Amino acid sequence: MTTGNQGLQTKRQKTTSQNPAITSIYTADPSAHVWNDGKIYIYASHDMDPARGCDLMDRYHVFSSEDMVHWVDEGEILSSDDVSWGRPEGGFMWAPDCAYKNGTYYFYYPHPSDSNWNDSWKIGVATSDKPASGFTDQGYVPGLGGFALIDPCVLVDDDNSAYMYYGGGSVCLGGELNEDMISLKDGMKEMEGLEDFHEAAWVFKRNGLYYLTYADNLEDNNRMRYATSESPLGPWTYRGIFLEPTGCSTTHGSVVEFKGQWYLFYHNQAISGQGNLRSVCIDYLDFNEDGSIKTVVQTLE
Ligand code: FUB
């Protein structure tokens, strides 16, 4: 199915765009990646309609595009029914990420392992040799999880070493992954230097500088903040807020370069008016000479 943001292509000329970008189903927490087939992919949470709550989020879809304008829904890639170790009642498939290393795509997602959901988060892993299908359950990252620890993000660095980040509440943790991309080399450590961290960690690299973006704690109106470091595991230097509230109580985003332009992927609730029926949005993201991120201008229609 094709859906999409027909206006983004000409936004700079017209100063208008079309957001949300994904309109065929409700989606949130977009993790965008450019793989070596030249396409850009969005791995997102899927808010289920009619809304009941986040317990109903029980499956993931992937979207792909060749031009940032036309988006193809590649279909469902994993549901809570596919997870052997998960909460018996299913649901709670929250913000995911995907990484590629040595011919394998690794799909990471937070999911509880028992009925006491917020105390039993684990970071599940599914793998495939394709970016948007064929994922099979590989269990979870040993030693990770527990109360409110969600939202995995994985950075594969230029030297092919890989780092995982996650967190929630007020703590953000990071650590290096082993070659298997499932276990950790030396465990996790707290990411130092972030201000007002809440959740939604995302790490990317630009011009040799690491950026860690995240959602803050502003009540019912989370914003996106960021910090930078010369090292993938910090310590981090706090740099500021770059996305103001979207009108949704949660915020969650990813930053990626595609064909020479940087973009911010995030979500709002513009279609439904409900915080648990969210929609993925896309806007241009620009940097200043000193590497700081310019405040993103949200295009609303
Ligand atoms: O989508 C479920 C949760 O809401 C995510 O894991 C958080 O980051 C927030 O967006």
Task: Give me a quick take on this structure.
The chain is mostly beta strands and 301 residues long. It has one helix at residues 11-14, and strands at residues 2-4, 28-34, 40-45, 59-65, 70-79, 97-101, 104-112, 121-128, 136-140, 150-156, 162-168, 171-177, 189-190, 199-206, 209-215, 224-229, 237-243, 254-258, 261-268, 279-284.
Low-pLDDT segments, ≥5 res: 9-16
Structural class: mainly beta
Bound molecules: beta-L-arabinofuranose
Radius of gyration: 18 Å
**First CA to last CA: what distance?**
21 Å
Number of strands: 20
Mean pLDDT: 93
Largest β sheet strand count, sense and barrel closure: 5 strands, antiparallel
Keywords: Carbohydrate metabolism, Glycosidase, Hydrolase, Polysaccharide degradation, Xylan degradation
GO molecular function, one term: hydrolase activity, hydrolyzing O-glycosyl compounds
Region (Disordered): 1-21
Family: Belongs to the glycosyl hydrolase 43 family.
